[in-house]
Request: fold
Amino acid sequence: DIVMTQSPDSLPVSLGERATISCKSSHSVLDSSNSKNYLAWYQQKPGQPPKLLTYWASIREYGVPDRFSGSGSGTDFTLTINSLQAEDVAIYYCQQYYSTPPTFGQGTKVEIK
Amino acid sequence: QVQLVQSGPEVKMPGASVKVSCKASGYTFTSLGINWVRQAPGQGLEWMGWSSTNNEKTNFAHKFQGRVTMTTDTSTSTAYMELRSLTSDDTAVYYCARDPRPSAERKNWFDPWGQGTLVTVSS
Reply:
């Protein structure tokens, strides 16, 4: 199974500042035949299911604010939240769908400093 | 809008079985597969398996093989996940989550998700 490792586990950020979350995979999730990275990001607020933010590493889901952006390739990926808002307090997960079983990172908790 | 609505919370004894339902609406149920993902209290997300909605195909995570069944009822646009021989380690919120697109290789992210069903295993 591909192991997904996120850092940090907890990220205190001041309102209006940038939050940067890292996700590393134990195996490349880049398919060279189509140049796509099989990596998604989710946001989960307490008592709610995960909500899709991005897929193919950097494609923002419809309706997701543009302060959320995904980047990276191969084994190293980043979710950036520009100008953190109070409603962005949540746990963020990365997920690879390059191979079965699809696997998730352990989560990064973003909170207000 | 696309929606997945799951059945209510369950409390089960160790050794029992639980069956969770996931009713879909807002799209053609048979066009996209359904996944099941669980989340133990305070823990991360764990994929359990995938079920086709237009044939009998399923694909399970190794740790659940032999203990889980995933089925669908196209007449009611409902997917089911049954987990047997429950232990306290199975206490978790169970989510259904749809494939976002057809994929012969079943390589997909998940969107949308059901609201979750809490299954508590306790004597």
